[in-house]
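With this grant's support, we have settled on a layout for protein records. An illustrative entry appears below exactly as we store it:
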Amino acid sequence: MYKKILAIYPHPDDESFGKAGSLAIHAMEGAEITLVCATSGQMGRRMGKPFFANRETLWEIREKELKDACDVIGIRDLRMWRMLDKTLQFEDPEELAGRVEAIVKEVRPELVYSYYPNYAVHPDHDALAEAVILAISRLPKQERPIVRASAFSKNCEDILGCADLVIDVSEVLNVKLDALRAHRSQTEFIIQKLEQSLADQPGLKDVLLDPYRKERYWTIQL
């Protein structure tokens, strides 16, 4: 069991899509979880369905949604960097890594959750993930935490191989779904579609929920 965990992602909702179950299990086990969210997601394309946000209000709504999701998951230490969404790829890599290194040295996690550089689709995902790996590689070897990295680009398994860690989060599936619901501006249409499918096809419940039960990671030991 890990006692101190750092999750570091660019956008509100990154912590919930594909990771909320794992983080919720850590929280249930009593781990102290720190979440760094680098941006406020202010450039996100979705404004709710039907719309309830606009470009001026989206950042505030998404920060509130993130706080609600953290409450659901059991994350008590949320750090908002409030960098500009969709610009992390243009940041100085050394400076971004320095910022990550500072939080790693403060929190001293045994385990870090992030994306796998170059296999996480969004430029912000890849840029911050590269900074995480660079920052951790700077530490003395005995002080480097394990990294659990998410990858979901189309070719990731062809190059990286299959994920070496697949976590069954069935025991906290309701928590995971509630965390996704908290990000209403981004997920409402997904959740509504799922709930409608469950109502229309109750016999397929296990099939419909199966994609949400497993979370996969590539372990990086630097």
Remarks:
- The first strand starts at residue 4 and ends at 9.
- The mean pLDDT is 96.
